[in-house]
Amino acid sequence: MSVDYRKITLDGLWHNNPALVQLLGLCPLLAVTASVVNAMGLGLASTLVLVSSNLTVSLFRKLVPETVRLPIFVMIIASFVTAIELVMQALTYELYLILGIFIPLIVTNCAIMGRADAFAVKNPVRASVLDGLMMGIGFTVVLVLLGGMRELLGTGALFSNMHLLFGEAARNWELTVLTDYPGFLFAILPPGAFVGLGLLIALKNVIDARAEKRRRMLQKPTELTGSKRVRITG
Amino acid sequence: MSLIRMSSPHVYKTNTTANVMRLVLLATLPGIIAMTVFFGWGTLIQLVWAGALAVAFEAIILKIRRRPLGFYLSDGSALVTALLLAVAIPPFAPWWVTAVGIFVAIVIAKHLYGGLGQNPFNPAMVAYALLLISFPVEMTRWSAPFVLNGEGWPVASFFDTLGAIFGSVDSVWYDSFTGATPLDELRHRGGLTNEEAWRQSVVLSEGIGAWHAVSAAWLMGGIFLLYRKIITWHAPISMLLALAICSAMFYGYDPDNYAGPFFHLSTGATMLAAFFIITDPVSSATSNRGRIIFGAGIGVLIFIIRTWGNYPDGVAFAVLLMNLAAPFIDIYSQPRSYGHSKANKGQGGKA
């Protein structure tokens, strides 16, 4: 069975993006994206879990009986989440406290379970790892975009508290875009996340529609010449 | 174009949307005049600013959506939305609060849902709720009625008000022209009983007259709309009755802790909501029976939010919650069409 690595990559990043198209894992997506650092922290953790669980599920795919596959997947995912949680507790303790319940809740992220059941269990190891990585990156990019939008609108600054994730060197990365900004609480509160995600999905649909239209426009002339009636008399 | 305001059987009306909106604007005149008299120039400045913004945003979004500009702009619905928001926010609210509110009302709550006639929520109330949770300081700094400020007509001068809205003034200025509303005062009275609160607070004992007068002015406008048959009596009357019955029950049970029906009916945004907000033809229930249920739900919710909620007034949240319930109410309150013994639910009703 040949594996189309290019298609896997594009699917994860764009065509079948877990956050924008599959709409999976919305709970953490909406809950923790109040700032870039929170979004990036949860995105990286989810990506790590996704890659490792896809790898493991794919390795054991021939040993797992069909009937009990879901409990087994949950156990695999839960052990990786626990490991990641301990790593975060050790390396980025403050971020671990901020993200709180949403780190253990990665277990229930449907995107991870979905990829294990829809892809990893049917595909070889290398393709599964790539799929996990690309889905994870696609998820993280949307998380960071949404976090950036909400942080900028809500507080007028970007990349504040990045030292929670990248150590002391990142403490002065904060970018004050709007000085003397009164703050816009709505963007930080959960309703702002829903509106923000809606706008991102709309943006993706607009880009897709434009691309489709351009593709059609380029194809049209060839179609026309193909259907032209051939002159047979005279 | 005319908005069809009934479910079937349809009765043709020559009333165009533009006509309806013009009469609604006319009916708000007494309320606007009363607010200007009691709270100063702020209301008028907000009205002009909000109206200009609403027309501008409407024109831009119509251009983007490639809709005919003149046709939609001349129906005046953007102006009505702007007006409702402008009288709902505090008269001294800074210019950007109004701007954010109008943007949310016109672009997000109205046009992203498909424009006039398609919005499930009342745009002005969406904007108000968003402003209230986003800018608590600016949105709770309501002007004090002039009767509390001293002799004569001591409201902030026109240019001072203009400066407060478009520039910045120090907080001392605000202190001399703003104050708690009666609903705030009753909400944050601590452990006092109603009677004690009334005796101690000037806002309640003297300032409340201003709120009674403003409510009476909105009621006048509402009666005009009823007389011209722009709105039906169902939603307003059932909302006011529900609010009065709820408050009367609790007031009768424990007059020390609960405010009486007259207080609830004549303060805050009760009258404005009853005649101008919940009668919005788009986001409310459509049949007469549906409107009664819709209005009663809002009345009960206003009482609940005012009495036990975090905010002193609950009109916006009550209206939004019942907007959510309106399609559901419509399914269960379909009128019987002529010739049928029961309402014909069609295929949609079975689900």
TrEMBL record, chain A:
Topology with respect to the bilayer: Multi-pass membrane protein
Keyword Acyltransferase in record: no
Task: Please give the start and end residues of each transmembrane region.
Answer: 20-51, 72-91, 97-116, 128-149, 184-207
Q: Which enzyme type, at the first EC level?
A: translocase
Main location (coarse class): membrane
Instruction: Give the Enzyme Commission number.
Output: 7.-.-.-
Q: Name one GO biological process term.
A: electron transport chain
Q: Where in the cell is it found?
A: Cell inner membrane; Endomembrane system
Print the keywords alphabetically: Cell inner membrane, Cell membrane, Electron transport, Membrane, Translocase, Transmembrane, Transmembrane helix, Transport
One GO cellular component this record assigns the protein to is: endomembrane system
In terms of Pfam families, this protein maps to:
Rnf-Nqr (PF02508)
Q: How does it assemble?
A: The complex is composed of six subunits: RnfA, RnfB, RnfC, RnfD, RnfE and RnfG.
**Family classification:** Belongs to the NqrDE/RnfAE family.
Q: What does this protein do?
A: Part of a membrane-bound complex that couples electron transfer with translocation of ions across the membrane.
Protein name per its UniProtKB record = Ion-translocating oxidoreductase complex subunit E
Annotated gene? rnfE
From TrEMBL, chain B:
> Which residues get modified to FMN phosphoryl threonine?
181
Q: Which InterPro entries match?
A: NqrB/RnfD, RnfD_bac
Q: Which UniProt keywords apply?
A: Cell inner membrane, Cell membrane, Electron transport, Flavoprotein, FMN, Membrane, Phosphoprotein, Translocase, Transmembrane, Transmembrane helix, Transport
Q: Which cofactor does it need?
A: FMN
Membrane-crossing ranges are: 20-38, 44-62, 69-89, 95-113, 234-253, 259-278, 290-308, 314-332
Principal place of residence: membrane
As for membrane topology, the entry says:
Multi-pass membrane protein
Known Pfam families for this protein? NQR2_RnfD_RnfE
Q: Which domain of life is it from?
A: Bacteria
Q: What is the annotated localization of this protein?
A: Cell inner membrane
Q: What GO biological process, any one, is recorded here?
A: transmembrane transport
GO cellular component, as recorded = plasma membrane
Q: What class of enzyme is it?
A: translocase
Q: To which protein family does this belong? A: Belongs to the NqrB/RnfD family.
How would you summarize the oligomeric state and partners of this protein? The complex is composed of six subunits: RnfA, RnfB, RnfC, RnfD, RnfE and RnfG.
Q: What does this protein do?
A: Part of a membrane-bound complex that couples electron transfer with translocation of ions across the membrane.
- This protein's name: Ion-translocating oxidoreductase complex subunit D
Name of the encoding gene: rnfD
